[in-house]
Specification:
- The chain is an alpha/beta fold and about 325 residues long.
- The chain has one domain: TIM Barrel.
- Helices cover about 45% and strands about 15% of the residues.
- It is built from 12 helices and 8 strands.
- The protein has an 8-stranded parallel barrel, surrounded by 7 helices.
- The longest helix has 19 residues.
- The radius of gyration is 19 Å and the shape is globular.
- The structure holds coenzyme A and zinc ion.
- The site of zinc ion has 7 residues, from loops.
């Protein structure tokens, strides 16, 4: 590819996190039916990994209280991974009961955020996940581990990439299959992406490294491009740009799936995801939330379609 480094991938894997990272931050109650429909529309769009819900404490995240029913009833296409967040063994028990085959455990690169998000120190979280991952792997599950606040912390500020690498090494040692290294509060800039990926390179195999950007300060797509230059092949994105973390003050949505797909399509990088069908999922959930998606590509493509439809209707 002329316009990217030789390390850049020709195909990337999208992990769609809208139903979890997106909806968890919404105060508008979304019905179980609507969550299921949203997930099924995302399956229709062909997302290879769908983070469908989380089996966390309903006191911590009320919007995810119906995780069991949502997961049971979403359509599971055989060639896709339906992922759920699990914070502890209780969450794993619930997930197993609901028929889950892929889980994500999650900790942070900073102590204050781990405490705020899961009520544990990083050490305690690794000890808890040790048991969770062991049971999940023994049961043949696919296991991901997410590391929040890897590019900055709402409580501690700057984060040393070497510290991120140490947490990642401990999670890999538990036997997880993939990592999702997150800019939870959307403070990162492309130079930081180079620094974090360089710090992780000796520790995390390229096929196990995923990145998760929030667009709070408008840098998520630039960070994605920087990561492509470094050869990163797995990206968490959310339909319409939904999202945020209730435990990260001021954090807004993830990098929008439509924006990433539009950019990747233009660059000739394959994802296997159908952008028009993805927009249908965003349109559906936007109607339930009562506001338009923040995704720039979504907005532009919807407007272009509306124009075309108007022209067709007037016969001109
Ligand atoms: N599913 C359902 N309920 C759970 C649960 C789970 N996985 N884990 C704990 N609970 C319940 C307990 O039964 C207890 O209920 P009770 O008060 O009725 O007895 C209550 O939650 C508190 O349990 P405790 O073990 O004391 O945990 P805690 O209060 O320290 O909370 C977590 C720890 C990890 C369960 C909680 O912080 C959490 O769910 N965090 C997730 C946050 C999140 O999803 N963030 C977004 C992702 S980035
Ligand atoms: Zn996130």
């Amino acid at each position: 590819m002329k316009n990217l480094s030789a390390a850049a991938p020709r195909r990337v894997t999208i992990c769609e996190v809208g139903p979890r990272d997106g909806l968890q931050n919404e105060s508008v109650p979304i019905s179980t039916e609507d969550k299921i429909r949203f997930c099924d529309l995302l399956s229709d769009a062909g997302v290879p990994i769908l983070e469908a819900t989380s089996f966390v404490s309903p006191k911590a995240v009320p919007q995810m209280a119906d995780a069991d029913e949502v997961f049971r009833r979403i359509r599971k296409d055989p060639d896709r991974t339906y992922l759920v967040l699990v914070p502890n063994e209780r969450g794993l028990d619930r997930a197993i009961d609901a028929g889950v085959r892929a889980i994500a455990v999650f900790t942070a690169a900073t102590e204050s955020f781990a405490k705020a998000n899961i009520g544990m120190t990083i050490d305690e979280s690794v000890a808890t996940f040790g048991k969770v991952v062991k049971r999940a792997k023994a049961d043949g599950m696919w296991v991901r581990a997410a590391v929040s606040t890897a590019f900055g912390c709402p409580f501690e500020g700057a984060v040393d990439p070497a510290g991120v690498a140490r947490v990642c090494a401990r999670l890999l040692a538990l036997g997880v299959d993939e990592l999702s290294v997150a800019d939870t509060i959307g403070v990162g800039t492309p130079n930081q992406v180079f620094d974090v990926v360089a710090a992780l390179a000796p520790i995390v195999p390229a096929d196990k490294l995923g990145l998760h950007f929030h667009d709070t300060r408008g840098t998520a797509l630039a960070n994605t491009l920087a990561a492509l230059e470094c050869g990163v092949r797995i990206y968490d994105t959310s339909a319409g740009g939904l999202g945020g973390c209730p435990f990260a003050p001021g954090a807004t949505g993830n990098c929008a799936t439509e924006d990433v797909l539009y950019m990747l399509e233009g660059m000739g990088i394959e994802t296997g995801v159908d952008l028009a069908k993805l927009r249908a999922a965003s349109r559906f959930i936007a109607g339930k939330l009562g506001r338009s998606p923040v995704s720039r590509a979504y907005t532009a493509l919807e407007a272009a379609d509306a124009r075309t439809a108007r022209l067709a209707a007037t016969g001109s």
